[in-house]
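User: Just a sanity check before I run the rest of the batch. Below are the structure tokens for the first item. I only need the designed sequence back.
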């Protein structure tokens, strides 16, 4: 392969960052010196090319050490992994957390997304602008800059901030309930050398059941076990499910999952037992198993709480998945904005491996399974399972056409199982109580417990566990009701890709079947409550901006449709329609139809759903609604001005 490199060379620091990850180069094929043995034949070429999956970790290594990825660093990464530099640039520039232009080592990401917006995000941004300067510009000492961010997955602690820090030993840090003074004092403290134990703000698990904490199944260890101690996990029954799985064998585990009627919790509600069986039955080897911990749907934070507070549970569940599907290697693909969850998972994996719960002969039971954590870099689309596969392979995170489905042709073209974090931890409960008993929880069509991410205008935002089938009214009541005691103005179910319901929908039962019949979705379990203080048109513009920003741009309906959708909404809320308001609404409807019908993946197919539901169910753009609205500038406008 010809690598067309520019003259740019890496600095010693950039080279060291990459070598610390990949080890020193072995020869001239991967960026080292030409040795006599290299003069006629190419050694290690194939081996080096097989390292392409390390492209994202290598870019992270440079970004983490230096704070941005220079042309010289990109050249060096390209040489080390024999990736054409144009492709490496295409990957580096795909992800929001990577910078390909020089910028300060500390970046303050201020979430201005739908839960943080009503919680004072604009005030926080104004304060950042006053103290640091306009978004994207460095402080006078060149140490810091700030920028707006989509949802950081800490919506129950809105407004949220992520400090992204570069340098030796520097660690990113999440700040919930962020106030300008707190952010500034954190910046003044600098360094950020806290141990993995340092907490981003513990969230007590909540239950919507009258019996209280005793009724928790999925969250029962959260706040009880020490997330950094395998012994503590085992003292709470940890690894009993894996023991049971081995006793019943792969076919037995699949039978329990089918009896339990477990459906995926990542959004698509696919039967998990069927998926595991499909992977297990593939003759091609090897098989892979992946946990989708990308969790970037605005309003969603459930997986973060589980990973931060009960990481061994996920590792045990992944090991059961590996055993059942004959996969020897697993990956947890975690979003790049979850530093604490990532640190705790890495620590837990190391401890599990040291103690024989991962590796060649798991628990002495004669099967192999090992896993690693891979960090995303700020791209919502990488939660879509085939985009995730591309990202893991070191490609741009663009979705693939389906079929073929990952169970047959997945990671590196091999059979691959992919499940959400919440789906996986349900497996532990199913094995503990048996599939039929699990199926008795919830309703006929929606079995088991469900995690709900309650945020916005409720008295006690947080992560709630409840059996499927309670009503929205009951769920809100268990969170102390709407702040101020009145009815909600609107509730967003399922996140930005979900749908709005209104105060007349509070008796909706929260099940797959009831929400489907009502034309809405539970999606990733988001229940985001808005009261009269919030301007809904402003929220809709923010949702439109989110999809415009996160579209991978691969297919026309979504690439163009998300832009046109945002523009039409902006005109509506500013009361400057082209033609009449009705014509703009008809245009939005048309754009929605095209995106829904002709987009390649779920992002484009759902990018208009929440907006369309607000227009049709809540009549957001009825004349008086539009007149009341004052809209804040979006990021597009700021960039344009
Ligand atoms: C745009 C988009 C983003 C997604 N993001 C996530 C995500 O962050 N986490 C997740 O588990 N599933 C996500 N999904 C769904 C996955 O494609 C896939 O269905 C899921 O990981 C399968 O796991 P499950 O069967 O356990 O739900 C997303 C889908 C789309 C279309
Ligand atoms: S629908 Fe949007 S996100 Fe999905 S492939 Fe097309 S452009 Fe990319
Ligand atoms: S953290 Fe701000 S909207 Fe989720």
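Assistant: Here's the designed sequence for the first item:
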């Amino acid at each position: 392969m010809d690598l067309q490199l520019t003259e740019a060379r890496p600095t010693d620091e950039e080279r060291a960052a990459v070598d610390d990850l990949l080890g020193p180069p072995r020869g001239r094929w991967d960026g080292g010196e030409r040795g006599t043995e290299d003069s006629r034949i190419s050694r290690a070429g194939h081996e080096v090319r097989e390292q392409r999956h390390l492209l994202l970790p290598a870019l992270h290594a440079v970004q983490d050490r230096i704070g941005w990825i220079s042309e010289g660093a990109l050249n060096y990464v390209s040489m080390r992994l024999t990736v054409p530099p144009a492709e490496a640039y295409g990957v580096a520039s795909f992800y929001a957390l990577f910078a390909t232009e020089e910028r300060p080592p500390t970046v303050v990401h201020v979430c201005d997304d739908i839960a943080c917006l009503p919680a004072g995000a604009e005030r926080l941004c104004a304060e950042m602008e006053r103290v640091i300067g306009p978004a994207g510009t460095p402080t006078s000492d060149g140490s810091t800059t700030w920028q707006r961010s989509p949802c950081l997955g800490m919506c129950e602690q809105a407004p949220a901030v992520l400090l992204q820090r570069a340098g030796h030993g520097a660690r990113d840090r999440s700040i919930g309930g962020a106030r300008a003074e707190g952010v500034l004092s954190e910046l003044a403290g600098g360094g950020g050398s806290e141990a993995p134990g340092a907490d981003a703000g513990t969230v007590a698990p909540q239950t919507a059941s009258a019996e209280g904490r005793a009724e928790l199944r999925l969250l029962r260890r959260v706040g009880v076990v020490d997330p950094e101690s395998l012994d503590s996990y085992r003292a709470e029954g940890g690894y009993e499910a894996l023991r049971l799985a081995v006793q019943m064998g792969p076919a037995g585990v699949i039978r329990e999952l089918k009896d339990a009627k477990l459906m995926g919790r990542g959004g698509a509600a696919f039967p998990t037992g069927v998926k595991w069986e499909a992977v297990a039955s593939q003759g091609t080897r090897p098989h892979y198993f992946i946990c989708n911990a990308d969790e970037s749907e605005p309003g969603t934070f459930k997986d973060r709480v589980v990973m931060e507070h009960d990481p061994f549970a996920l590792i045990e569940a992944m090991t059961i998945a590996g055993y059942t599907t004959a996969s020897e290697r697993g990956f947890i693909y975690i979003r790049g904005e979850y530093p604490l969850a990532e640190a705790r998972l890495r620590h837990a994996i190391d401890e599990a491996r040291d103690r024989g719960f991962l590796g060649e002969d798991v628990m002495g039971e004669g099967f192999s399974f090992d896993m690693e954590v891979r960090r995303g870099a700020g791209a919502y689309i990488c939660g879509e399972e085939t985009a995730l596969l591309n990202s893991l392979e070191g490609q741009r995170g663009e979705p693939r056409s389906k079929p073929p489905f990952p169970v047959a042709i997945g990671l590196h073209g091999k059979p691959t199982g992919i499940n959400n974090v919440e789906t996986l931890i349900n497996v532990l409960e199913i094995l503990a109580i048996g599939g039929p008993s699990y199926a008795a929880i919830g309703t006929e069509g929606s079995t088991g417990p469900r995690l709900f991410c309650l945020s916005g205008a409720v008295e006690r935002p947080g992560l709630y566990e409840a059996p499927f089938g309670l009503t929205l009214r009951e769920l809100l009541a268990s969170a102390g009701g709407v702040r101020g005691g009145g009815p909600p103005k609107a509730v967003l179910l399922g996140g930005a890709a979900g749908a709005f319901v209104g105060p007349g929908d509070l008796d909706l039962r929260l099940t797959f079947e009831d929400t489907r019949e009502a034309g809405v979705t539970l999606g990733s379990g988001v229940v985001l409550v808005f009261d009269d203080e919030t301007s809904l048109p402003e929220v809709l513009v923010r949702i439109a901006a989110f999809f415009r920003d996160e579209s991978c741009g691969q297919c026309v309906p979504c690439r163009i449709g998300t832009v046109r959708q945002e523009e039409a909404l902006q005109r509506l809320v500013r009361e400057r329609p082209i033609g009449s308001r009705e014509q703009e609404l008809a245009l939005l409807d048309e754009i929605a139809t095209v995106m829904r019908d002709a987009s390649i993946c779920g992002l484009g197919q759902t990018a208009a759903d929440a907006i369309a539901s607000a227009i049709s169910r809540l009549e957001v753009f009825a004349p008086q609604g539009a007149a009341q609205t004052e809209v804040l500038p979006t990021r597009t406008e700021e960039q344009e001005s």
